């Protein structure tokens, strides 16, 4: 029961932080709106007491919504980006409930203006409060996480772990936990029935006994949690461990040995009320996908508008017209998400009908089909600018695996295992493989490894990191596009 008391203490720390910060955020919003030099107050300053008296309602609503959002569950090993968006969604939802409650009271007391006016609050205060609250709650939690991580690295606030299964999966779990000591997980040992592993010591973690010894070892080592990493054929042993763990009050996490089948990211879903594990689900879904799509549209629109005003895009169009008899733009069929075909746009950098005699082929380092202006455009990746139109249309994203032409997709999916999994997400103008140097005539297998890593570990912060690296590549004058897909 030690772990439960520990969780309660951490819960209270986060709860206290959220409530104090939320209360101060609301009062600060009142001050900024009515007592700072940023805003005029033509109707006069409303009494502070009116806003102060709203705090109890705010605290109750925020606590309720944050709890529904899962913000008071254990944060060990969780993504800060995910937490930020959970906080943002929670604040917006809580504000909607607050405004709905205030509207209800105003309507209910509409025939009593003196009472109804008590529930009138400045929209400016509410807007400022939302912005301040999201960021201050997030940074408050970030500070708490940093403090907890510091003490966990020093050996405090540890959760003692016993791993059932010293096979490949169990060892991978140990590796992951030892690489992230700030999470505060301390593995005390393995349990395994394999006689060959009786004397095994992996990364200073010994095999302490067999599975039947669980109760005795758990009591001796004061284990808080059991990580079950056994093969699927050990179903009876797994169920026995779960029952014994429940009897001992030990927290149990099940890591089924289906890693050999999982290709992207496993996710539990329900089909008619029956739980099922989706073994190749991508993390790009729901609210996160909506945020990524919104940022794609906003960034691409602003980027194209800025290059038009400069005016870089009109200048490129004029130069292509003056130096090349072919059209300014060309479109080429590529394979995108879910294997769907789309027309990818580029500024023309080769002579007209460059592949008329050869068909689709790889570009050469000193390809004679590239025009002089085309070499300049390719060197600075300026020929890729029209692909932001593809992003706005929804064919592509700014960040994702580079799209290929149908001929190469047909070839690669036969030669390279898991190749088609890269089409589980939208193709990108830039990607994790490209910023790590896997472009041009480099290993297709390596590119696939980097593409799958990106899909498995995707987050908005990861996208920002890739975009920043792409910008640095551009500043250093290193082309980032792969050449496996040829211009014509």
Give the arrangement of secondary structure elements.
Layout: H1 2-35, H2 48-52, H3 55-68, H4 80-108, H5 113-116, H6 123-153, E1 159-164, H7 168-179, E2 185-191, E3 201-202, E4 205-209, H8 214-221, E5 225-228, H9 235-248, E6 251-254, E7 265-271, E8 274-281, H10 286-309, H11 312-323, E9 329-335, E10 341-347, H12 372-379, H13 387-393, E11 396-399, H14 406-415, E12 427-430, H15 432-435, H16 444-456, H17 460-475
Parallel strand pairs: 1-2, 1-5, 2-4, 5-6, 11-12
Antiparallel strand pairs: 3-4, 7-8, 9-10
Q: What features would you highlight for this structure?
A:
17 helices, six-stranded mixed beta sheet, alpha/beta, 3 domains, 488 residues, Rossmann fold, 50% helix, flat, two-stranded antiparallel sheet
What does this structure look like?
The chain is of the alpha/beta class. A 6-stranded mixed sheet has the order 3-4-2-1-5-6, with helices on both faces. The chain has 3 domains: 2-153, no CATH class; 159-260, Rossmann fold; 286-475, no CATH class. β7 (265-271) and β8 (274-281) form a beta hairpin. The longest helix is centred in the N-terminal third of the chain and has 34 residues, at 2-35. The chain has 17 helices and 12 strands. α10 packs across α13.
Short description:
It is built from 17 helices and twelve strands.
Backbone structural class: alpha/beta
Number of domains: 3
Summarize the amount of helix as a percent range: 40-55%
Cα shape: flat
Radius of gyration: 29 Å
N-to-C span: 68 Å
Which percent range describes the beta-strand content?
A: 5-15%
- Trace the largest sheet across and list its strands: 3-4-2-1-5-6
Number of strands: 12
Number of helices: 17
* SSE sequence, one letter per element: HHHHHHEHEEEHEHEEEHHEEHHEHEHHH
Average residue pLDDT: 82
């Amino acid at each position: 029961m030690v772990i439960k008391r520990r969780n309660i203490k951490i819960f209270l720390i986060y709860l206290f932080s959220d409530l104090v910060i939320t209360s101060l955020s609301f009062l600060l919003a009142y001050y900024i709106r009515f007592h700072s030099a940023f805003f005029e107050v033509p109707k006069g300053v409303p009494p502070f007491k009116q806003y102060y008296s709203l705090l109890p309602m705010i605290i109750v609503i925020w606590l309720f919504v944050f709890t529904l959002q899962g913000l008071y569950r254990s944060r060990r090993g969780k993504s800060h980006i995910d937490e930020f968006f959970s906080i943002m969604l929670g604040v917006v939802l809580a504000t909607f409930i607050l405004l709905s409650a205030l509207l209800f009271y105003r309507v209910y007391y509409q025939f009593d203006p003196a009472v109804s006016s008590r529930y009138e609050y400045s929209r400016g205060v509410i807007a400022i409060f939302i912005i301040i609250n999201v960021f201050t709650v997030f940074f408050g939690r970030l500070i708490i996480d940093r403090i907890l991580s510091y003490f966990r690295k020093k050996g405090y606030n540890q959760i003692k772990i016993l791993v059932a299964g010293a096979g490949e999966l169990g060892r991978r779990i140990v590796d992951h936990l030892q690489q992230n000591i700030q999470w505060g997980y301390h593995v005390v040992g393995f349990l395994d029935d394999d006689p060959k592993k009786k004397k095994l010591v992996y990364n200073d973690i010994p095999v302490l006994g067999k599975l039947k010894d669980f109760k005795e070892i758990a009591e001796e080592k004061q284990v808080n949690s059991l990580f079950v990493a056994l093969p699927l054929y050990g179903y009876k042993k797994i169920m026995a461990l779960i029952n014994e763990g429940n009897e001992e009050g030990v927290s149990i996490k099940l890591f089924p040995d289906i890693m050999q089948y999982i290709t992207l990211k496993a996710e539990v879903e329900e089909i008619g009320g029956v739980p099922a594990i989706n073994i190749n689900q991508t993390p790009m879904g729901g609210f996160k996908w909506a945020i990524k799509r919104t940022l794609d549209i906003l960034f691409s629109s602003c980027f194209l508008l800025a290059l038009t005003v400069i005016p870089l895009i009109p200048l490129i169009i004029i130069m292509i017209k003056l130096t090349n008899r072919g059209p300014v733009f060309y479109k080429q069929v590529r394979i995108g998400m879910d294997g769907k075909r789309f027309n990818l746009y580029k500024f023309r950098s080769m002579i007209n009908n460059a592949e008329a005699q050869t068909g689709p082929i790889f570009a050469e380092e000193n390809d004679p089909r590239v025009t002089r202006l085309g070499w300049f455009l390719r060197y600075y990746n300026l020929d890729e600018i029209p692909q932001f139109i593809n992003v706005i249309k929804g064919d592509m994203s700014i960040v994702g695996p580079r799209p290929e032409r149908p001929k190469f997709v047909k070839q690669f999916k036969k030669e390279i295992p898991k190749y088609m999994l890269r089409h589980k997400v939208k193709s990108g103008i830039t990607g994790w493989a490209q910023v790590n140097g896997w472009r041009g005539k480099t290993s297709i297998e390596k590119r696939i490894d980097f593409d799958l890593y990106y899909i498995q570990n995707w987050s908005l912060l990861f996208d920002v990191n890739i975009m920043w690296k792409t910008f640095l590549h551009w500043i250093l004058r290193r082309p980032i596009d792969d050449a496996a897909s040829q211009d014509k």
